[in-house]
Amino acid sequence: MKILPLVINNLNFNISNNKILKDINLNSNEKKITIIAGNNGSGKSTLLKILHGLIETPRNTIQWGGFSIPEIKHSQSMVFQSPILLNRTTYDNLLYVVKNKKIKDKYYIDKIVEKLNLKSIEKVNTKYISGGERQKVAIAMSIIGDPKIIFLDEPTSQLDPAYKNEIEGIIKDLAENETKIFMTSHDIAQIKRIGKEMIFLDKGEVIYNNTVEKFFKDEQSELIESYIHYG
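RE: above sequence
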């Protein structure tokens, strides 16, 4: 299934007459990591949720390689800023997803545990693990079934440098292995390290959509220059 280009046609989203997203039009062929950035309240998380189908929009507003969101939904997953985990062991959280996706490989969870270095917490209830470990478990759950697209909402915003580095490594590895990543981030250094494409929002409008390289190299608006300087 070909998921690119992502085409967004005149996307608008309101809550109680408050415009959250305004007249968004995009055509993206970037295969690796797309960063969605902007100041607080700019609509980043809302756009991410819409792309994942958690918020419904008119049917032809968003197309993935010619497919609608419902047609591509089974090939997507999402990791939230505060991961949602079951009150069970790490292994049981992974097992829950494996069963839901009807994966028959009896060694599948072992492979995921090894890939994300989760052996030390495999039998630990997730309510006792650290924030960085919770994020790794959430990402492990999201990659079960090899989705073509993963949405990450500020995946490292509350992590120490060691876990941030580890999570970034996992994200880059996924992108190198043909998983399309959409990720919100406020971290300027992180955006430079791993981002390929930038979608920058201000008050619900796209004011920049191009490569990350050009975002930092070219002259930008005063608002973006301020964001880069203080981010």
